Fold this protein.
Amino acid sequence: MSDNVALVVGARGVIGGNLVNYLEKLGGWQVIGLSRRGGDSSERVRHVSVDLLDATTRERSSPAWRT
């Protein structure tokens, strides 16, 4: 069975960070975390640094969460 995929916007904030940690510990989830600050990726969590209000960085970063 393949893993579920969660896209968490604001992954370094209080709520988003707790959700990322919860899904990572729960298992069965691949998490893509979006935030302006990025973060350290692991086997199940991939952090992408992007400012969604800035079209230039948004377009440059989009391949990172499509893979």
Notes: The chain has a mean pLDDT of 86.
